[in-house]
Amino acid sequence: MSSTPTVFNPKAQKNTESAYHHQANHNQNRTVAQTANAVKLSSSNNPKIGFVSLGCPKALVDSERIITELTREGYQVAKDYDGADLVVVNTCGFIESAVQESLDAIGEAINKNGKVIVTGCLGKDAEKIRTMHPAVLAVTGAHAYQEVVTAVTHHVPKPTKSKNYDPKIDLIDDAGIKLTPKHYAYLKISEGCNHRCTFCIIPSLRGDLVSRPIDSVMKEAVALKNSGAKELLIISQDTSAYGVDLKYKTSFWDGQPLKSKFFDMCQAMSKLGIWVRLHYVYPYPHVDAVVEIMAQSMANSAGTGGLLPYLDIPFQHASPNVLKAMKRPAMSEDTLERIRAWRAICPDIVIRSTFVVGFPGETDEDFAYLLDWLKQARLDRVGCFTYSEIEGAVANDLPNPVPEHIKQQRYEALMALQQQISAEKLAEKVGKQLVVLVDEIDTEENIAICRSYADAPEIDGHVYLDNINHTAKAGDMFTVLIDEASDYDLFADFGSAVPV
Length: 500
Known about the structure:
The protein is of the alpha/beta class. It contains 14 helices and 21 strands.
């Protein structure tokens, strides 16, 4: 029996159930091979370390820093398990499915290599890891860069550094080694969180808020720009709380005093001349002033650089009863009014969020309230989780759990509503010009897979540029004319593209 090959055609996905591709979790998983391909270091006889990275962009940044330090010590990155002298597994422990994925990854590394060091969020539960995988050599927690390097050097002694000049090692700049494409990078501005949401265990995994001084943040931002990044994705656990723990300490950057404060950081970032995208922003009142910076950036650069009019805000729910049970910060704020205010300040603003359905005690009325809120809010990008218990979370002890089949029904209903909203909002883009950044080239289909200011990598939609020629490459920026829209994606022809 012959089979018909599947042809990539994003337009054909317009009305399919699989079109729910706005992801709730911003995972940046990397296998051993993917890590090696991203690093692309020259081969040598030096010891080789395999690296598996699981979880969110914050974990990916941790992996990048560890790999950078190991590389400075002379280690190479292995391209497979067989060629590795040791394997590091950077784990995720945010939800139970992530915990299981991490435990499975540890098991695979042990079976295929035998020498394994575990780090990351799941490392907080070392007993669980050692009980299931007693062969693990060492376990550390999240962002424990030096502990991992020390463990590696203990089990695989550091190579003797050659006196010969090696640009792959000697020219590692302030940007460090990145596991993202060259044209965009994640920049972590703080670690930990001061909130105690009942469904979340991040504070127990990563601690309370610890912000980086502003001069350190800006130094890395400039280094990333100089290394070729055209987009910076600002990440933390609570981006709009940046600097609170430092009491907004003033440092000097570029010869000028600058406060370690959310607004001041955004203002400085907006002047870098590249895209800057904010993630994990809580809807505090002072965000209004940052939206004004977005409006100014859009006007001054015509969308080619500056602070993008894009806010990733984890609303999680809308019902006052559920928000109270979740112990969400800013739950008393009238978020609909705040959204209206942001759109008045910056009409081009795109808002993405994540919601949890089926939280313990969530009634039919609570869920109906959430759907009505979404109809009014008309968010641009939405992801959704069905609630699941997380070991150590306070919410596990709340009464009135929601049956699994009800959770799934609510998930489907919410995503179906959001699919309709997304399709309507994207249809409004047809006939308009947008600046896009090329992420990938599909040579077989002659398509450039791009993103606009409205699209973060991995979790949002795309702009597909048809009929490209050989000159188009990843990292290029074009102004294009949108000629078609689907539920989640936009389309344009390369003939309309003007290089930026």
